[in-house]
Amino acid sequence: MSITTRTPARPARLRDGPRAPGGRAKRRPRREREGAAWVFLSPWVLGAAVLTLLPMAVSLYLSFTDYDMFEPPSFVGLRNYTQMFTEDPRYWRSVTTTLLYVVIAVPLQLALALAVALALKSVRRGKGFYRSAFYAPSLLGASMSIALVWRALFNDGGTVDDLLSRAGLDIGGWVNQPGWALLAVALLTVWQFGAPMVIFLAGLQQIPTELYEAASVDGAGRWRQFVSVTLPMLSPVLFFNLVLQTIQAFQVFTPAFAVSGGRGGPADSTLFYTLYLYDRGFTASHMGYASAMAWVLLLAVAAVTAVLFRTSRSWVFYAAEEDR
Amino acid sequence: MSSTRTVPATPAPAPGPASAAPGRRPPVQWGRVALHAGCAAALLVMLYPLAWLVATSFKPADEVVASLRLLPGRLEWSNYTTAMEGLEGVSVWQLLGNSLLVSGGAVLGNVLSCSLAAYAFARLRFRMRGPLFAFMIATIMLPHHAVLIPQYIVFNQLGMVNTYWPMVLPKFLATDAFFVFLIVQFMRGLPRELEEAARIDGCGPFRSFLRVVLPLTRPALITTAIFTFIWTWNDFFTQLIYLFEPQKFTLTLALRSFVDASSQSAFGPMFAMSVFALLPIVLFFLAFQRFLVEGMANSGIKG
Q1: Does pTM surpass 0.90?
Q2: Complex ipTM, two decimals?
Q3: Closest CB from A11, A43, A195 relative to B194
Q4: Would you say A192 and A141 are in contact if contact means Cβ atoms under 8 Å apart?
Q5: The CATH classification of domain B92-299, taken from the options 3.90.1300.10, 1.10.3720.10, 2.60.40.3360, 3.40.1380.10
Q6: What domain of life is recorded for the organism (chain A) (predicted)?
Q7: Is CB count within 10 Å lower at the N or C end of chain B?
């Protein structure tokens, strides 16, 4: 919507100008135009086929094999999957670690993003500055630099750890303690609340002010307005953020790698799914096993997305679809 | 700043004490002051890690953990001279050049291929458009790791491991569907009349794309370029699996060698190098923050 407002339609000159004499406005034959479309699409089609669909098929096949990149793959049926589910405690450790992280980080991040967006909505002076400044960590947070800073801040004697121990909570270095290490990684994700915040803010600005006026005429207080106007009107944006952040959270890698020294420690407490996949595939050269893990991840993300979409029918409110 | 332009009407000031009689000083709005104070305080907490990074990169080894003081007692420039030496004989300038090469190539690829595909999806008619568009959207949600291993095997077979092709080539094939979607959304907002006029003047789809649509799409292309640059720059995982020769390392990957180092003496140089690796992103952000924030804001709103 705001896209259209930024590029005002200015076709007047062209429309009012003399029309080309009838003969020149020849319509190209449909087939020729369709051919043009495929020319434009060709890089994407090639990429989708060779770099997306084919690899997915190949990794599905590899997931039923034993493959170490040197010997040709040997078919082992479902063994990778049965081993994963029944004989590999580290695999389950990586699953629970990742789920725990998603469940902690995503709601905290979105709640903070929404709270800050609501606060910024009523700021008049300096809104652009705040918006950009809060957004900055979302771009920087994925970097190895920040991951290393995080490790140092939460390490034994690091600023966060030191402040907490002075306040009487002696943790002894978050990154050394199982449980706390995971929380440190989750806080790094929460720190990057700027991206969903910016999207919330844009969504808030799309809510017609008449709705608030009508609500306050009807005697609705601030909280009531939030529950009855803001939340329903914002629910599509909330849903978008929820889906996007959840999918991203399942794939977190760099901070886990940095915080745990690349090994998922302490005591496998930061052994994220992707970290274990990297370990199996590229450190231990079990490409078949890693392929099976990748497919389970794909199915899990698809399932979670499907569930989110299914539940969305009951809480996401699309007002005036035709307006959009 | 610019966001206010897109808002049709800012809410009228409350008809309470705020709209005081003319000539009298308006009373201090304590709510507003508290709001700004809260925002500023939150901002300080948010930006502390960045300040800490810069400050620590100047600290001598004995000061890094010894005190909570943010500012170094004395500036230790040797952290930077050590960091400049780089890694295993590869200077930091070469690492920087490698990073720029990878990110620059990725930007070129994404801008070209994504705008081409986006134009087809936004404006042209072809069979299977609906299903293909749905498929393209679905690939946005596809976990990168699902295709990682076979892609690695393919690039390995092609002898492209330890080159930059695995990071750059996919971008020329529009595999970053997020940007295709972003540009499609933008193009759909452009007035169709311009292209119709161009067609009447005898422009085919190619000329119409190059001369009419592409120039108007510039904001979306800039957003694509900057995001691609920053995301590729930061993409540790891909660089980790494809590059193994120090000569080929990027700045991001060079930091990996510090991951295992736990000795305090490595702290200064590590964070000096971190500052170096972060600097281009910060500069890009400062220069183009409007495009980034607006681009991100628009991605969530259905056009």
Answers
A1: no
A2: 0.83
A3: A11
A4: yes
A5: 1.10.3720.10
A6: Bacteria
A7: N
